[in-house]
């Protein structure tokens, strides 16, 4: 499908928000996967076209819906099911950095500095911690509960 053809369809549907899921797979997910060479945006491993498995291609919101991201083509990348799940409501920049794709582009310096010293084997675990920190306001120094 050409870019023009897609725009026409989106107009007909009354905007990208209203594209039915089945059509979204066909006209949004598939072209994205092809543009990415069927490699996950984050981990760069091959994705499968059919659903269900952890390596199946999914549409991932660059800016999570929980943070005001839209269901829009411009807000999607194709990611494997595992990355999509691990990403949770992290932004693409943060998660991509942790997965080694984004190289810290667009991240606050404080986060880039944190990432620099994390060995790749630690990144996955650290991703969850960092996500929690970014999600929640910084805890007061005296309110830090141990776990
Ligand atoms: Zn992946």
Write the layout of secondary structure elements.
Blueprint: H1 3-13, H2 21-35, E1 57-61, E2 76-80, H3 81-87, H4 92-99, H5 109-116, H6 120-135
Antiparallel strand pairs: 1-2
The structure holds zinc ion.
Zinc ion (ZN) binds near residues 40, 42, 45, 80 and 83.
Could you walk me through the main structural features you see in this protein, from its secondary elements to its overall organization?
The protein is mostly helical. It has 2 domains: about 1-85, no CATH class; about 90-135, no CATH class. Helix content is about 45%, strand content about 5%. The chain has 6 helices and 2 strands. It has helices at about 5-15, 20-35, 80-85, 90-100, 110-115, 120-135; strands at about 55-60, 75-80. The longest helix has 16 residues, at about 120-135. It is globular, with a radius of gyration of 17 Å. The mean pLDDT is about 75. Zinc ion binds near residues 40, 42, 80, 82 and 83.
